[in-house]
Design goal:
It is built from 18 helices and no strands. It has 495 residues and is mostly helical. The protein has a domain of 110 residues: Serine Threonine Protein Phosphatase 5, Tetratricopeptide repeat (Alpha Horseshoe). This is HCP-like protein. It comes from Rhizophagus irregularis. It holds the Pfam family Sel1.
Length: 495
C-alpha cells in the first residue's frame, strides 16, 4: 500500500527546545540528522563521542511513517489487477541479538520488476466492480489507492480533460477511504484501521484536496491505534509528545511508544530505547531496558531504520568507565565497528562518516587506510552529510598518492556544499579558500563575508581571522601545498 508522500504529519516545526535544523525532508523541515558538533576541524574527533549527539536529542524520528502492510517498492509481486502484494509487518522478526537482521520485507521478484498496473478505463472499471463485489475492506482500500495512482498517471492530452479525469478519480478515492475510515463494511464491523491511518496522514499534510486539520488527524491515529495499528500508535505517541492535535502529555506519549514497540513498530522500538537511555519524557533512565529495545530495533534494521545500529555502535565504543554503565553491553571496539558497518551498509550517512574518521585517523582499532576513509566519506557525502562533505574536501586538498588526485577545485566545491548547509567549520574553510585563492579566485571581501557567517555561529578561528583582518594584525594568508601531516595543526583548514 502506497501511503501519501506524507510530509509526515505530527512532526512540528522547531518548538519545545528541539533544534531540528534546516534540512527539509518529508515535511515540517525535519532533520533526520542531529546537529553536528564543532570538533572535527580542531583535530581527530574522539571516537567514542558522537559528533551528532545532542543531550536534548530530538527523538522526533523517523521523518515519515511506516506502512502497516510493508514497504511497496518496485519489484514486489502483483495481483491480477497489477497491484502490489505486500508482506505484513508481522513477518518481520526481532531478537535480543542485534546481529540478526531480518530481510523479510526486502525480497524482490526480478521477473515482476518491470510489471506496471494498467490505468485504462476498462481496467479501472473491472477493478471497481471486483472491489464492490468483494465487500472486503482491504480490497476496497487497495482500490482507493489504485485510483489515486491512476489519477497521477492520466494520459489525457487536453489539460481540461486531464484535470477533470484526475479530479473525478481522486474524489472517488477519497469517498472510499473516508467511508472505510469511519464505518465498517457489514453489520457490527469496525472501521478499517489502514484507512484511518491513511486519512490521518492526508489531514496532517493537506493532501488529496483535504484541509490540514491536526485535530482530525490525531483522532484518526487514535482510532486506528485502538485496533492495534502499530504505525498509527507510533504517530499517536508523537502527537502526545509534541502537542499536535492534542494536549502535550509526555507520560501518555511514553505509553503509546511502548504500545507501538510491543506491536512491532521498529521506529517505536528505537525511540523507546532512546527515551530509556537518556531519561527523556519524564522517564527515569533505564540503560538495561534501553539496550534491549535498541537491539530489537537493530534486529529489524533496514534502509529506513538503521538508527539503532548506529546507536549501539556508539555505546559499544564508549570506554568501560564512561556512563551509562550497562552490564549487559560489551564495551568493545570490534562490536562497535560491526554495528557501524551494518548501518553503513544500509546507507546510513552518520555511520559512513564515523567509519571515514576511524580509517583516516586509525581509531577504534581500524588501521589508517586512506582508500577506506575516502570511500566512506564519499558515501556519506553523496547523501548530503555536511561533515563528510567537508572531510572529503580535506582529502581533495591534499590528495592521496595512487588513490585520489589532488584538486583545489574539488576541495573548494565539496567545502562549499557543506558551507551552503550552514556548517560553521565549512564556512570558515570557504573563507580561507576564498582569501587564499584555492579552487576559486581570491577575493578578500568575499572571504570576509564567509568568515562573518562562521563567526556568527561561534567559530573561534573565524572570529580571530576577522579581528586580524579588521585591525591589520596579520597579512593576507598565502597558499601553500597541504599535507595530511598538517591536518591536525591548529592553523590548517582541514585540521
Amino acid at each position: 500500500m502506497r501511503y501519501p508522500e506524507d510530509q509526515a504529519y505530527a512532526y512540528p516545526q522547531k518548538q519545545y527546545g528541539y533544534d531540528q535544523g534546516a534540512y527539509d525532508y518529508q515535511g515540517y523541515n525535519y532533520d533526520p540528522y542531529q546537529p553536528e558538533g564543532d570538533g572535527y576541524y580542531n583535530g581527530p574527533p574522539q571516537y567514542y563521542y558522537d559528533s551528532n549527539y545532542n543531550p536534548n536529542y530530538d527523538p522526533n524520528y523517523p521523518p515519515q511513517g511506516y506502512p502497516q502492510e510493508g514497504y511497496p517498492q518496485e519489484g514486489y509481486p502483483v495481483d491480477e489487477f497489477g497491484q502490489p502484494i505486500h508482506y505484513d509487518q508481522s513477518n518481520r522478526t526481532y531478537s535480543d541479538s542485534a546481529s540478526n537482521i531480518s530481510s523479510a520485507t526486502k525480497q524482490k521478484d526480478p521477473a515482476k520488476a518491470e510489471e506496471k498496473p494498467s490505468y485504462a478505463p476498462e481496467a479501472i472499471e473491472k477493478y471497481r466492480q471486483k472491489a464492490k463485489d468483494s465487500g472486503d475492506p482491504a480490497t476496497l482500500f487497495k482500490f482507493g489507492n489504485y485510483l489515486i495512482e491512476a489519477a497521477g498517471a492520466t494520459d489525457e492530452q487536453d489539460p481540461k480533460s486531464a484535470k477533470k479525469k484526475k479530479d473525478a478519480l481522486l474524489q472517488e478515492a477519497v469517498k472510499i477511504i473516508k467511508r472505510l475510515a469511519t464505518q465498517g463494511i457489514g453489520f457490527g464491523r469496525p472501521a478499517y484501521p489502514d484507512a484511518q491511518f491513511y486519512l490521518a496522514n492526508c489531514y496532517g499534510n493537506g493532501s488529496l484536496g483535504l484541509p490540514m486539520d491536526p485535530d482530525k488527524a490525531f483522532n484518526l491515529y487514535m482510532q486506528a491505534s485502538k485496533q492495534n495499528h502499530a504505525t498509527a500508535t507510533y504517530r499517536t505517541a508523537v502527537c502526545y509528545e509534541y502537542g499536535a492535535g492534542t494536549k502535550r502529555d509526555p507520560n501518555r506519549a511514553t505509553q503509546f511508544y511502548k504500545k507501538a514497540a510491543a506491536l512491532g513498530d521498529t521506529a517505536a522500538m528505537y525511540k523507546l530505547g532512546i527515551i530509556m537511555l537518556r531519561g527523556l519524557l519524564n522517564q527515569n533512565p533505564n540503560p538495561r531496558d534501553a539496550v534491549i529495545w535498541l537491539k530489537r530495533a537493530a534486529a529489524n534494521a533496514d534502509e529506513e531504520n538503521p538508527h539503532a545500529l548506529h546507536e549501539l555502535g556508539l555505546l559499544h565504543a564508549k570506554p568501560e568507565k564512561e556512563p551509562p554503565e550497562i552490564p549487559s553491553l560489551i564495551r568493545s571496539e570490534k562490536h562497535a565497528i560491526e554495528e557501524f558497518k551494518k548501518a553503513a551498509d544500509l546507507g546510513y550517512a552518520p555511520s559512513c562518516f564515523k567509519l571515514g574518521c576511524f580509517y583516516e585517523y586509525g581509531q577504534l582499532g581500524c588501521p589508517v587506510d586512506p582508500r577506506q576513509s575516502i570511500r566512506y566519506y564519499s558515501r556519506a557525502a553523496e547523501k548530503g552529510h555536511s561533515e563528510a562533505e567537508l572531510a572529503l574536501s580535506g582529502w581533495y586538498l591534499t590528495g592521496s598518492n595512487g588513490i585520489l588526485n589532488q584538486s583545489d577545485t574539488e576541495a573548494y566545491l565539496w567545502a562549499r556544499k557543506a558551507a551552503d548547509k550552514g556548517l560553521a567549520k565549512a564556512e570558515y574553510a570557504i573563507g580561507y579558500f576564498t582569501e587564499v585563492g584555492i579552487g576559486v579566485k581570491a577575493d578578500i571581501e568575499e572571504a570576509r563575508r564567509w568568515y562573518m557567517r562562521a563567526a556568527a555561529q561561534g567559530n573561534k578561528r573565524a572570529m580571530q581571522r576577522l579581528k586580524e583582518l579588521n585591525f591589520g594584525h596579520a597579512g593576507r594568508a598565502k597558499p601553500a601545498k597541504h599535507t595530511r601531516a598538517q591536518a591536525n595543526k591548529e592553523d590548517c583548514t582541514i585540521s
